[in-house]
Amino acid sequence: MNIETRIQDGITVILIHGEIDGKTAPDAQEKLLPVVAAHKTIVMDMGDVPFMSSAGLRMMLLFYRHATAANGKVALVGLSEQIRDTMAATGFLDFFVVSVNVQEAVASLKTG
Amino acid sequence: MDSRIDFYPTHEYAGYKLRPGRPYPFGASLVPGGVNFSIFSRHATACTLVLFEKHAPKPLVEIPFPQSFRIGNVYSMVVFGLDCENIEYGYRLEGPNDPGRGHRFDKTRILLDPYAKAIGGRDIWGKVPDWNDMFQYRGRLVFEDFDWEDDHALETPIEDLVIYEAHVRSFTRHPSSRVKFPGTYAALVEKIPYLKQLGINCIELMPVYEFDEFENSRPNPSTGETLYNYWGYSTVAFFAPKSGYAATGKFGMQVDELKNMVKHLHKSGIEVILDVVFNHTAEGNEKGPTISFRGVDNNTYYMLTPEGYYFNFSGCGNTLNCNNPIVRNMVLDCLRYWASEYHIDGFRFDLAAILGRDPWGAPLPNPPLLETLAFDPVLGKCKLIAEAWDAGGLNMLGSFPAYGRWAEWNGKFRDHVRRFLRGDSGMAGKMGQRIQGSPDLYGSSGRGPTASINFVTCHDGFTMCDLFSYNGKHNEANGENNRDGSDDNFSWNCGNEGDTGNPEVQWLRQKMMKNATVLLMVSQGIPMMLMGDEIGRTQKGNNNTYCHDSGLNWMDWSLVEKNAGLLRFVRNMIAFRRAHPVLCSSTHFQNRDYVGSGLADITWHGVQKWNADWSNDSRVLAFMLDGNHAKGGAAKDNTIYVAINSYWEGLSFSLPEPPRGGKWHVFANTGLASPNDICQPGMEIPLKNQNDFLVGPRSAVILVAKVVC
Predict the structure, then answer these.
(1) A74 to chain B nearest CA, in Å?
(2) How far is CA B254 from the centre of its chain?
(3) What DSSP state is assigned to residue B162?
(4) Nearest CA of chain B to the CA of A22: how many Å?
(5) Is the minimum CB–CB distance between A53 and chain B shorter than 8 Å?
(6) Which of B87, B103, B200, B567 has most Cβ atoms within 10 angstroms of its Cβ?
């Protein structure tokens, strides 16, 4: 798993490559939490994440909590059908803005 | 926090870092850096923790508890550095194998933790298990961090509930349900709009504790179809949700999915009651499998005969020893866990009379378990509902020790409504009691109508449609030559056994289902209806469908359209009940005017007003509820008049005068075809003839007194 970040229209976009599970989540969390804390409003591009375990979903919720505590927001794009279904069934999806692409996500975070 | 020295290991075994654990809480709990494992056994001489990687055939490691890690009869240990998502755990316990003294220790077996909060091994419903696996039901670790936001048990006053009894899988498994993941908690969430529109405000789920659908599974001797332990009244793990009911069970996320379902139901104002089976376990008698309790401490967990055999008050091979203090605490811990961790609103206890027996099976006058649950602070607002009988012949209907808390499934309501409606003689007086919330059962002890869960049908027995389509049970598909299931159904086929194209029979059946719905919804006490009765679901005359994963149990959603008239009737009846507090009293009627309205709270009528016929041959009953006595006089409501004619010919009823200058308006008349059989509450139609009403054969009528401006 590796992570890239970039700025698009003034909003931080985090691109994650690879699975997020109990083994990789602690590393991802360590790398990303400072980014979330610094930028508050972020887009997470999950287009290259084939699987997220329960630990991965919890990491996402932790980002959400950190972002909202600083009046920020988290938008998700590129969720695979399976991850989206899992997040919907377990309630995690309810916390996030979900967009079809990064452009739309950035736009909705800016207006919202 | 990290500076606390008890967050660091003190011992090591085979490369695993350890520390003496904390005895409480029992089970596996995540602690900083590790997992605290704790298990009770009074009679074991040694204990070993067995860890597996998820799905692995062989253990990762077996860690014996050092003697210094045992406090009293509890073995506890923290293991550090585990990958919580990928660990499965169990125990080996050593001790005497002396069945005559009640001990059945066997260190060759790996046992499930009685407090396991999630189970691996039956991840996906219906996937045939590998019976050669040395460890069938594997404890898993769970995160107890669900984000409930502002959710909270709804605490609806029990008298205001309308309960819908449902089976998670049956509710959405049928292809006609058109959900993405049929038969799951997630699919149930998709169907919440339907439940809201129906108007119920409480769903009672048949067992969702982990059970094994393959327990005693077998082919039907005549059809070859696989028969399952489908309903799930045979618990494997009391603290774990059924993984096979979760769309995400294959990822081990059943805990989150069930919690999310509860959260969404609560958002829609619907309470969740769980049907819990504490009377026995899936281990059966001495010939059954050793899963957990038998090997952990047989003598503590089960009621045993002096010879060491299993008492069988449950009819399922063994009896949980619920009034042993250890087992009592386990039941309490379990319910507290579900109430606090899952926000469950209440519990219905299967064969609850067993919970009132002592360790030798004798009924106790003041059963400690029932008292403990009634007074428990965490369960302080939960509904507690007893099935007040057991399979050992103990029937405590009306006398279940209540401590001001316990309600009961009222089996007499079921039987008397059925008999009254089919036209049995001698039922008018009994029906009068049931309509009042059964003061004959609950009045003298001061329990009130809130003790009475009223139902005409439930999972045990015929569906409402079958109740009026079959004289006898037709359980051949169960593979027991139609010997299983109750013979006391008080059913009536309306002239033809089973399906028929005869429109007269079909019309009569529709009417009988509506009549039963009327009696259920206008009676004091708490109405409970069975999933699918609102759309005429049939089980083809099978009154014991415990073993079928098929259309015999699945709700056929195409009936929503096919029986739209019936569904509309049921919806409006539920809405009527919820709109009229006079139907939902928490105290019994006094049959007198205690608010000075000029009318008694309830008055009785018949074909002649003010003159009820309680004689043996009477098949009619009419009553008027005074709106000024609603909620004991605390609420104002319309006055309501109900007439039921169970006679096979139409009868003219003379109507009592509506009070306070009102006029009678017709809300429902089951003698008319849909849509004229009922209206929306509040849209009642003024009645031309205010003096008499011709109530058709086997029909029910509801009138509402309203002042016409």
Answers:
(1) 16
(2) 20
(3) -
(4) 6
(5) yes
(6) B200
CB B525 within 8 A of CB B410: yes
B53 contact residues in A (CB cutoff 8 A): none
Residue B466 one-letter amino acid: D
Complex ipTM? 0.96
Distance CA B555, CA B681 (A): 28
Strand B383-386 and strand B639-645: the pairing is unpaired
- What's the rounded Cα separation, in Å, for the pair B219 and B30? 42
At residue A110, the pLDDT reads 84
pLDDT for res A112: 65
Q: How many helices (H) and strands (E) does chain B have?
A: 14, 33
Interface of A with B in 60-79 (CB under 8 A): 61
A11/chain B closest Cα distance in angstroms: 27
pLDDT bin (cut points 50, 70, 90) of residue B181 is very high
Q: Does A21 lie at the interface with B, CB-CB under 8 angstroms? A: yes
Q: How far is A10 from chain B (nearest CA, A)?
A: 30
Asked if B338 is an interface residue toward chain A (Cβ–Cβ < 8 A), one would say no
Probe site for chain B from A24, A51, A54 (most B CB atoms < 10 A): A54
Range of the domain at A78: 2-111
Q: Is A90 in CB contact (< 8 Å) with chain B?
A: yes
Q: Which of B198-202, B376-380, B658-662 has the lowest mean pLDDT?
A: B658-662
Amino acid at B513: M
The answer to whether B248 contacts chain A (CB < 8 Å) is yes
**Is the CB of A54 less than 8 angstroms away from the CB of B86?**
no
Q: How many Å apart are CA A42 and CA A97, to the nearest integer? A: 10
How many domains in chain A? Answer: 1
pLDDT at A1: 85
**B47 pairs with which residues across the strands?**
B93
Residue A59: which CATH number? 3.30.750.24
Chain A CB contacts of B252 under 8 Å are 54
Q: Answer for the pair B205, B167: CB distance below 8 angstroms, yes or no.
A: yes
Q: Which of B106-110, B183-187, B357-361, B631-635 is the least confident region?
A: B357-361
Question: In sequence order, what are the residues at sequence separation of 6 or more whose Cβ sits closer than 8 angstroms to the Cβ of residue B147?
Answer: A61, A91, A95
End-to-end CA distance of chain A: 31
Q: Which of B540, B467, B203 is nearest to B345 (CA)?
A: B203
What dihedral do alpha carbons B629, B634, B639, B644 form, nearest 10°? Answer: -70
